[in-house]
């Protein structure tokens, strides 16, 4: 039965007009449908950024059977892997040379740009890249993701892998924090070519429990910033409510019961007060987790993105008035405004 099913599947595949779909599905048909099989174009994974999140994400990929090579500027972080026999490299470029896929998990846009385009960066040998897919799970601004994606798509591959003629990039930030990274239950918000997203899904599901395709390049990063903005607002509200309630004579444990069984319940209501609940950051002396400075950086980018949206909309509206294209209006409207 299994053989017959596979032959029928190959028959359907041979009649499929899409060469991309054929290349995408063939590894699974050729190896069978076992969940333990790793597609050949995902076997070798380079992981860069072994901090609070990256350490656990890379560890889960190792557990899932991927061949991992790692890099970090922190020697102690690298030693945790080298002690286990995992290959480590001194530069991002060296990681790229031995990888089919690259995953980066870094603190900021400037760190991402440095790792990709800096000296000995991932794109150092841009005319002959080994990885066919680059996945950035950092929380950065969408424009940086889109610029990087465009630059990567202009590079050439040493050899064709999977369905890609040129290297591709997915922006795939995560939600769930360090506990979810450790447990392998992260949620991935992914932007980029949908075919690349589908091909990379086994990787995501080795580190998380849910993947959400958000659309074109940069949309994953945009979704993450929107998510962080909403979470920051709820965390501030919950924290202020706990301070007020305790000053009014209500214990933190009582407020926790009320919040978690009423309309105030939200992800942030797990508890910001030490000693009330086990396993949450406040009861671990706030050790690890998503640093406040990173949240501040993420949230501060939201107004900049809003300004970009308003500017774009004003250009489009102006273009409609002048009966010109949005592109030409975007170029000339600021000039006209300054001339006035």
Automatic annotation (TrEMBL):
One of its GO terms (biological process) is L-valine catabolic process. The keyword NAD applies. GO terms for molecular function: 3-hydroxyisobutyrate dehydrogenase activity; NAD binding; NADP binding. Keywords: Branched-chain amino acid catabolism, NAD, Oxidoreductase. It catalyses: 3-hydroxy-2-methylpropanoate + NAD(+) = 2-methyl-3-oxopropanoate + NADH + H(+). Residues 44-215 form the 6-phosphogluconate dehydrogenase NADP-binding domain. Transmembrane segments: none annotated. Its EC number is 1.1.1.31. The keyword rRNA-binding does not apply. Pathway: Amino-acid degradation; L-valine degradation. Residues 218-298 form the 3-hydroxyisobutyrate dehydrogenase-like NAD-binding domain. Pfam families: NAD_binding_11, NAD_binding_2. It comes from the Eukaryota. Belongs to the HIBADH-related family. 3-hydroxyisobutyrate dehydrogenase subfamily. This is 3-hydroxyisobutyrate dehydrogenase. It comes from Phoenix dactylifera (Date palm). The lineage of its organism: Eukaryota, Viridiplantae, Streptophyta, Embryophyta, Tracheophyta. The gene is LOC103713826.
